[in-house]
Structures are given as structure tokens and as C-alpha cells.
């Protein structure tokens, strides 16, 4: 090789190394390739048609029914509304039937990662249905290949056999809904919910929560989003593999944009972000409830009231003046539970089928006329936590009916628990109640829905002390 050619080769190598060093691995984008509109040699049907076929099979065979497409020559068309770039989706994407005002969506499983470089947000695609199956997996309509009695991932080597890209990349307009609108028909759609915030217990304390970076987060972090319009609660689920899992939750209120889906078990609606930009929390004015604020010091050596539930049944409590009231007409109520000899008040809406439910546990009348500087404390164990739905109240004017009584919410931070099992008892308080006088009652309101937030709570060691 002569010296001129050697110099050229060295120059090319230097340029190549310099160019490569300037490119960040995580900055790659979809190559600007020219895509021709595919020639679909078959019948194009909508997502709603696929969902309708599945609904007929489910009506005949039950929720585990699957539909396998054979010799239909059908293709389903849809727009991609998920994005796995931030790691919050893995080997799956979500399509809906139209770029705006969608009415149906499908989750598509495929053994390919990443997907956003090929099926970016807004890309219109066509999926050949013959050879694929659709069924309800994790509570939502899912398309893939049948493996045993489950819908599984399309193999990577079959990707191009089944999926074709359109030249169209649409601007997706999120479907604006409220939490009250949640239904199976709206799952797998790109939605927007306005006027929401994270629970104050999660973001305003000394240790605000991250999206999914807490020691108790396994597979997913589940955080409560509250509606400032209705007070309803929804669960935001974030994968522990998401690259934003360690970010702290925003303290403001604003809007959510993302996918409505369900949790792994398919029994609770979940909200999932494509990335953190789906939360536009730009309103500094939170909508937290007004809580009782008593000035001055509190606490003393005298126990005014206490209850540890030892040796008692729920009927014993009711006979001694406690109230156990379901205000939504269902049968769900508090019971006395026990573990390793310890007893406590217990409630769980799981498998109750009540949606919504609201259950109150109210103490007997407590006389504070002979004491001062009172404060309240109690212990809480939160278990299978999928939403913070317990609230403590006080009143000095009980009407005999929890729905007509004027209650003051206590500034009591209810602890979060293990989303996948039993938590540990944690102390709540002391809460200063010294500005409430006379005969008072303390209440614990449990309000959620099944399906929806159904966290199981154990309440123990309720105590009021003072001078």
C-alpha cells in the first residue's frame, strides 16, 4: 500500500472514530427512511371488529376464551399509541383504531426490543391476523400467538410476516375522560385526565416517593393519582425497568396523558405513562382537603381513651358503642382480625364486588371535658397496597348518622404498604386534637372500589392522651 493510500485510510478511520464518539447510544431516532404505502393483499378491518369477534367468543365461552384467526385474509389497522423508549413498555405495543376519538384498542405482544425505532408513536400499521390469536390477558384485549391457553409474543423472526408499516404518522389526540369513565371498553386507549395530583402523603412529606424506585417496589411502582374534581383515585403504574423510575413524583397538580390498562392480575384499572412528559403538572395550587389544625402544645401522661381490640369481636365493639357502617349499601364492613395473638380492626374491599364502597368505623363517645392538650395516635398496617383509601376524622357534634355529621379531617399521614403482600405496623401521629372539646368521636373512613383501590388495612392501638 503506497503512502498516499495509507494516509487516506488513516484519515477515514480518524473521522469514523470521531463521529462515533460524538453519538450518544440513547440518542438514536427512527432512521429517516422513505416508507411506501404497503399494498395490503387482503381485507382491512378495524380494531372494533376484532374486539367484537372476541366479545362474541367471550360471551359464549367465558373470559378465558381465545379466537384464533385462520383463512380470513384479514388485516387489522391501527395507530401506535405506546412508546417503549423510556422502558415503561417491554416487547409489546398498543394500537387504537383512530388518531382522535378512538373507540377501541389492542395490546400487541411481540418478541422484539426496542420497538419505538420501527413502530413509533402515531405510526399507522397493518397486522395480518391469520396465524394470530386474540384474548383477554391481564384484563385487556391482547393480540399475539397462541401458546397453550395463553396469548403469547409474536416471534421476532415473524415480525415482518405479520406487521406492515403505513407511510402515515398521525398526530394522536388523547381522548379526554374522567376516572368515573373507566371501563373495559376504554382500555388500550391513549387518554387524558385533567386536574389530578398525587396523594399528599406521597409527595409532601420529608421523604417524597419516586415513580418506582422504592425498596418495596417489585416489578412495578404503584402510586395514587387523585382527581381534584371528584376525589376519585386511580393507580399510576410504572415499571421498575423504566429509566425514570428514580425521579421524584411532582408535587403540583395538572394532567395525565397515557394508556388506560389494568394491573398484572387484570382486576384493577391502571394508568401507564409512555414517559414523564405525559404528566403536565404545572398548577402550584393543590386541591388537598382542609385538615384540623390545633395551635399550641399537645400531649400528656394521662390516657383519656385507648383500644387495642384484644379479646374482642366486632359485635363486642358494637355493643360498647362502636359503629360499623357501610354507607354505599353493600355488605363490606370492618371485622376484628388477628395474627400471632395480636388483634386489630381489619377491612379489605378485595373481592367484595362493591364499586364504589364507603365504610366507616366510629369510636364510642369520648369525653374530653376533663382533659387538655389532647393528642391522638394509632398504628396502621397497610397490605396489598393499591391505593391510599383510609382517612381519619373527628367530630364534636355526632348526629347519629355518619353521612349527616360534620366531620373534620385529621392531619394523619396513612402509611403506604407492600403492594404484593403484608406490610408492617407503623405508628401514625401524634395528631394534635386539643382544640376539639366536649364529647367527640374518631372515625376511620375506608373508601374505594372493586375493581379499583382495595388496600387491606389493620388498625390497632388507638389512643388519646392529654393532661
UniProtKB/TrEMBL annotation:
One of the Pfam families matching this protein, by short name: DUF5689
Domain of life of the source: Bacteria
Domain DUF5689 positions: 64-276
Alphabetical keyword list: Signal
Signal peptide coordinates: 1-23
Entry keyword annotation includes Nucleotide-binding: no
Spans traversing the lipid bilayer: none
Protein name: DUF5689 domain-containing protein
UniProt organism field: Aquimarina rubra
Amino acid at each position: 500500500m503506497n503512502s498516499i493510500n495509507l494516509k487516506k485510510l488513516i484519515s477515514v478511520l480518524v473521522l469514523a472514530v470521531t463521529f462515533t464518539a460524538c453519538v450518544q447510544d440513547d440518542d438514536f431516532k427512527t432512521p429517516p427512511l422513505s416508507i411506501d404505502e404497503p399494498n395490503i393483499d387482503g381485507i382491512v378491518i378495524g380494531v372494533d371488529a376484532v374486539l367484537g369477534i372476541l366479545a362474541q367468543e367471550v360471551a359464549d365461552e367465558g373470559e378465558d376464551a381465545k379466537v384464533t384467526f385462520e383463512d380470513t385474509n384479514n388485516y387489522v389497522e391501527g395507530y401506535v399509541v405506546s412508546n417503549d423508549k423510556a422502558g415503561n413498555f417491554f416487547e409489546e405495543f398498543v394500537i387504537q383504531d383512530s388518531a382522535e376519538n378512538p373507540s377501541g384498542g389492542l395490546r400487541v405482544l411481540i418478541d422484539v426490543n426496542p420497538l419505538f425505532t420501527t413502530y413509533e408513536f402515531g405510526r399507522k400499521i397493518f397486522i395480518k391476523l391469520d396465524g394470530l390469536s386474540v384474548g383477554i390477558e391481564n384484563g385487556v384485549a391482547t393480540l399475539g400467538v397462541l401458546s397453550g391457553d395463553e396469548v403469547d409474543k409474536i416471534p421476532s423472526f415473524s415480525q415482518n410476516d405479520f406487521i406492515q408499516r403505513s407511510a402515515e404518522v398521525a398526530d394522536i389526540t388523547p381522548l379526554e375522560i374522567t376516572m368515573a369513565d373507566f371501563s373495559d371498553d376504554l382500555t388500550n386507549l391513549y387518554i387524558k385526565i385533567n386536574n389530578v395530583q398525587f396523594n399528599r402523603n406521597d409527595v409532601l412529606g420529608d421523604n417524597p416517593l419516586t415513580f418506582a424506585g422504592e425498596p418495596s417496589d417489585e416489578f412495578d411502582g404503584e402510586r395514587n393519582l387523585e382527581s381534584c374534581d371528584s376525589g376519585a383515585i386511580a393507580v399510576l403504574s410504572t415499571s421498575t425497568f423504566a429509566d425514570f423510575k428514580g425521579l421524584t413524583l411532582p408535587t403540583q397538580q395538572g394532567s395525565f396523558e397515557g394508556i388506560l390498562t389494568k394491573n398484572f392480575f387484570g382486576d384493577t384499572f391502571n394508568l401507564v405513562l409512555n414517559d414523564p412528559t405525559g404528566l403536565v403538572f404545572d398548577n402550584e395550587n393543590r386541591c388537598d382537603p382542609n385538615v384540623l389544625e390545633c395551635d399550641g402544645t399537645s400531649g400528656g401522661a394521662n390516657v383519656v381513651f385507648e383500644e387495642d381490640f384484644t379479646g374482642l369481636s366486632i359485635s363486642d365493639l358494637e355493643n360498647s358503642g362502636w359503629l360499623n357502617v357501610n354507607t354505599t349499601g353493600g355488605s363490606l364492613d370492618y371485622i376484628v382480625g388477628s395474627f400471632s395473638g395480636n388483634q386489630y380492626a381489619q377491612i379489605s374491599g378485595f373481592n367484595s364486588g362493591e364499586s364504589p364502597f364507603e365504610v366507616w368505623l366510629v369510636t364510642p363517645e369520648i369525653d374530653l371535658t376533663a382533659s387538655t392538650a389532647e393528642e391522638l395516635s394509632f398504628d396502621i398496617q397497610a397490605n396489598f397496597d393499591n391505593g391510599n383509601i383510609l382517612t381519619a376524622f373527628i367530630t364534636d357534634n355526632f348526629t347519629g348518622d355518619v353521612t349527616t355529621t360534620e366531620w373534620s379531617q385529621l392531619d394523619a399521614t396513612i402509611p403506604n404498604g407492600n403492594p404484593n403482600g403484608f406490610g408492617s405496623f407503623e405508628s401514625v401521629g401524634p395528631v394534635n386534637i386539643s382544640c376539639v372539646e366536649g364529647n367527640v368521636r374518631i372515625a376511620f373512613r375506608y373508601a374505594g372500589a372493586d375493581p379499583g383501590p382495595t388496600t387491606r388495612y389493620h388498625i390497632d392501638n388507638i389512643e388519646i392522651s392529654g393532661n
